[in-house]
Amino acid sequence: MQRILATLVMLLIPLAAARADTVILLDGSSIEGEIIKEDDNEITVKGRFGKTVIARKDIREIQKKDSARGDFLKKQDELKKGESANDAQSWMTLGYWAKKEGLREEADKAFGEALKLEPNNDKAHEAMGHIRYLGQWVTPEEKRRREAKDGGNAGINVAPAVQPKPENNAAAGGGSATAGTGMVGGSSGSSKRVKCSSCSGTG
């Protein structure tokens, strides 16, 4: 019973995965994935476990199926030629579908078409990973570039430092600090009292 269940799971995995091409080899085995490159000598298949290069001489048959990317191109072409070509919501719907299918680049193309029609479409900006900076939608890279240019002080005005006023002293042209003290001399700040014969120097 367990072996049967395991076999069923293995059979269902390809169905659950994205539709892909099938390359049948001469020995009867097959490789599933998306053919991303081919020439007269070999083909390259991108599968769930990476890329596989197969020589043409080893291939018996190639069964190509529509991939998710192929579906996107068809939907995109139909939308451009249809009545909804100028409908931003239709492009948003295509973008969400592509994003669900893992087609990040294609999704951004669809969201970009929506923004051409509605430049202020917040949902389209958010879907593309844009963020607001100083009231504008920008990419994360653009935000970092602007922050580096602004130095983190965008919109901040710094008042100049206030210089202290000089004191009203001798250096500023004022009167001597020793004026009127009964001290004389003034040389290098030294002073001495003058003896008076009337008061014997008591003042």
Attribute tags:
single chain; 203 residues; alpha+beta; SH3 type barrels; Serine Threonine Protein Phosphatase 5, Tetratricopeptide repeat; 5-stranded antiparallel β-sheet; two-stranded antiparallel ribbon; 9 strands; 36% helix; 20% strand; elongated; disordered N terminus
Task: Write a structural description.
This protein is of the alpha+beta class and 203 residues long. Among the domains are: 8-63, SH3 type barrels (Roll), CATH 2.30.30.100; 68-150, Tetratricopeptide repeat domain (Serine Threonine Protein Phosphatase 5, Tetratricopeptide repeat, Alpha Horseshoe). It is built from six helices and nine strands. A hairpin with a 2-residue loop joins strand 3 (42-47) and strand 4. Helix 2 runs antiparallel to helix 3 and helix 3 (88-100) runs antiparallel to helix 4 (104-117). It is elongated.
Tell me the structural class: alpha+beta
Radius of gyration over all CA atoms, rounded? 43 Å
pLDDT under 50 segments (min length 5)?
A: 1-18, 155-159, 170-191
- Look at the structure and give the mean pLDDT: 76
CATH architecture of the domain at 68-150: Alpha Horseshoe
String of helices and strands: HEEEEEHHHHEEHEE
**Treating each run of at least 4 consecutive H or I residues as one helix, how many helices?**
6
Net shape: elongated
Helix content: 25-40%
CATH class of the domain at 68-150: Mainly Alpha
Assigned CATH superfamily of the domain at 68-150: Tetratricopeptide repeat domain
CATH topology of the domain at 68-150: Serine Threonine Protein Phosphatase 5, Tetratricopeptide repeat
User: What is the assembly state of the chains in this entry?
Assistant: single chain
- Amino- and carboxy-terminal Cα gap: 127 Å
In this structure, how is the largest beta sheet organized? 5 strands, antiparallel
Total beta strand runs: 9
What portion of residues belong to β-strands? 15-25%
Strand order of the largest sheet: 4-3-2-1-5
